[in-house]
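tool_call predict_complex ligand=nicotinamide-adenine-dinucleotide
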Amino acid sequence: MNYIKQKVEVVDEKKLEPSTTKKVQRILRAIYITLYKATLQAIARFLNFLVLAWLSFYYIAESIVRNFTPRALSTLKSLRGKTILVTGGAGGVGQELVLKLIKYKAKVVVWDINEKAIAKLNEKVAEEGFKLYPYVVDLADRESVYKTAEKVKDEVGPIDVLINNAGVVCGQTFLELPDYMIERTYKVNTLSCYWVNRLTNINLTLVCPYFINSGMFEGCKPHHAPMLEPKDVAKRIILAIRREEDYCTVPGNAGYILAMKQYLPAKLTWLWQHRIIRLPQAMKTMRQFSEVQAA
Ligand SMILES: NC(=O)c1ccc[n+]([C@@H]2O[C@H](COP(=O)([O-])OP(=O)(O)OC[C@H]3O[C@@H](n4cnc5c(N)ncnc54)[C@H](O)[C@@H]3O)[C@@H](O)[C@H]2O)c1
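tool_result ok
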């Protein structure tokens, strides 16, 4: 009996062992799958490289054409009939933007916290024979932003162009800044852009201006160039929007100084800012931020 049992077990083990052909087939299949995957990956990487190379070439060419085409020849986006939202539209640059945009026959929506200034602007626009869509809203309050956005959607329609112009500034040094003002600056100047931008699907144009004579930096005495006028900045912003620029500094040559800053040692840029441009000294002459302005 024992002998028979042993014999049966030997036969079964042999049955379980794969034949050499099957082993080879399995190895070949594994090699094939590995090679197949590697080839696909190589093709995908090559196609990715081609797309990247093409887009790099295209964007460089686009930027060269955009920057070197005379303004008179460049194609400008029409603003006629477009719904344009200007935040902080009752203030210095914002108001100039509004007064220019209505003349392009755009539907201009203004958001501002300053009720009196917004009412005054509304009257001015009506006197010129145009219609304004004014809304009093505190951009530092997210819920208020969302509610006003819903109202605008119902009463005016979707926004085509958004100008995130509202801003606050505090004329104190870093260590003197009151906590509430640090929070408010972030809420109005930064966070509100997230809440408002979410409401639209738009191209982005970043505008970086030098000092503007709007009252925001009242008292500042820049050393090398006079302050810009709000109406000139508004004109440049509208041109940047119409040319669908991604980034614009006002004045244009400030862009080279900003770019240079990236390549110079930080201590050197501070030295030059202090001794040549004298920016910190200019800022220190600014009228101190008052409670009235913060409210
Ligand atoms: N003035 C400058 O020198 C200068 C320089 C660089 C950048 N900027 C930026 O340009 C933009 C326009 O500046 P400006 O010189 O016309 O300033 P401004 O103070 O004349 O106008 C700002 C407008 O934003 C409104 N605002 C402030 N807080 C608000 C809030 N919580 N909710 C809704 N509206 C609010 C104000 O009521 C005002 O109408 C700002 O974003 C500013 O930071 C200005």
